[in-house]
Amino acid sequence: MALSVKNDDLEEDASGDRKASLKAARGPLLALGATVFSGTSSEFTALGSKGGIPGFQLLFFLRLTQFLTVLVCLAIFRPKLIGENRRQNWLLLLETLIHNLSTALVLLSFTYAAPGIAFGIIQGALPLFTAGFGFIFLKEKIGPIPCCGILISVTGVVLVSIGMATQAVDASRTLVVSILLPVAAAFTKAPDFVLRRAILKDVSGTTLYLYVTSLGTVALLILTFACETPVWTMSAEIAGYVAGVGLSQTMVMLFFIAVLKVEKAAIAVGLRTLVIPFTIILDYFILSVVPNVLKWAGLGLVVLGAVVLNAHTYWAHRQEEKRSSFLEKMGISLPESEKK
Predict the structure, then answer these.
(1) 276: exposed, middle or buried (Cβ count in 10 Å: 0-12, 13-18, 19+)
(2) Cα–Cα–Cα angle for 213, 180, 300, nearest 5°?
(3) Closest to 104 in 3D by CA, of 196, 200, 195, 184
(4) Are the C-beta atoms of 57 and 231 separated by less than 8 Å?
(5) In angstroms, rounded to a whole number, what is the distance separating the alpha carbons of residues 149 and 126?
(6) Which segments of the chain are extended strands (E)?
(7) How much is the pLDDT for 138?
(8) CA pair distance 280, 278, nearest whole angstrom
(9) Residue 90: which residues within 8 A CB-CB, separation 6 or more?
(10) How far apart are alpha carbons 152 and 184 in whole angstroms?
């Protein structure tokens, strides 16, 4: 009888341990999903651009796809369409403007540099910028180990930029644009992520993206006709690339809403750094782009920083879940500030 009770306790402990491990892995796993779709989106963007589709028109199709997805979500979930107060409404408006600007800079980066290299610069610099904005506006602090991971990634970005300069065959102006565009994208993406995390604490993600995608769709349609000659007749292959951009970015949007629900802003963007090796592999097989030694070294450091950040994030969440489980077994309730 005593042995049976002991076995039941062991099985209960093992089940609780598995649940704690899965809960601790939520952030990294959700970020991995966003990573896969980010990589495929960048390749579709580069292929669509090479196929003759103007940049703003690609962005228009992307936003249109996201807008249609948001309308479906609105019909299903029926969230409140405005914030609870004036502050939330102002944040929604500000995030709408910043998000559309940063997304445009990110996707335009892929037309001047190979997606893997552009991602190397963006994702390497982004956690540093986000950590700064997160500390200033959300008072979110990160520990010394995540800081080390972020600094390793930033060092990798510097090496990638040097590698681009030594391998450049284009005009110096194009080289400067291919470096500055991703850096500008990273700088604008940082407040974008911080604002999104702040807004998602009080407002539905569906409501947030209704504002972002509706304004973005209209603005990009205007820019398409004002600044470019749109291409409406295209082959099935090019149409597939355009659809791929929209669908991939829509999945990134959904995954990243979930990530920001469970992770600090700087940690969330740091977890996505593994998009770089994935995109480099796609660059090689799809675009036949082979990085030089300096680029490989820089990308290696970026990935190392991401591994440090992912491993520490999982370990920290694992310890938190074990502590919570122990307190629950002891009948001690968690403070409200520690509940997620």
Answers:
(1) buried
(2) 95
(3) 184
(4) yes
(5) 12
(6) none
(7) 67
(8) 6
(9) none
(10) 20
Nearest to 322 by CA among 21, 11, 15: 21
Residues contacting residue 46 through CB under 8 Å, at least 6 positions apart: 110, 111, 114, 115, 287
Asked if residue 231 has pLDDT above 50, the reply is yes
Q: How far is CA 158 from the centre of its chain?
A: 21
Residue 233 neighbours by CB distance under 10 Å? 6
Residue 185's CB: how many other CB atoms inside 10 A?
A: 27
Between CA 163 and CA 280 the distance in angstroms is: 15
Cα distances (angstroms) measured from residue 91 to each of 86, 181, 199, 261, 338: 9, 25, 7, 17, 25
Task: Give the lowest-confidence range in 109-118, 162-171, 313-322.
Answer: 162-171
Length of the chain: 340
What DSSP string runs through 190-237? HHHHHHHHHHHTTS-HHHHHHHHHHHHHHHHHHHHHHHS-------HH
Position 37 pLDDT exceeds 50:
yes
- Tokens (6 digits) for 172: 């110096």
Query: Phi and psi of 305, rounded to 5°?
Result: -60, -40
Q: What's the pLDDT tens digit per position in 113-125?
A: 666 677 667 776 7
Average pLDDT over residues 70-92: 88
pLDDT of 218 reads 92
Give the Å distances, CA to CA, from 143 to 29, 76, 194.
21, 40, 18
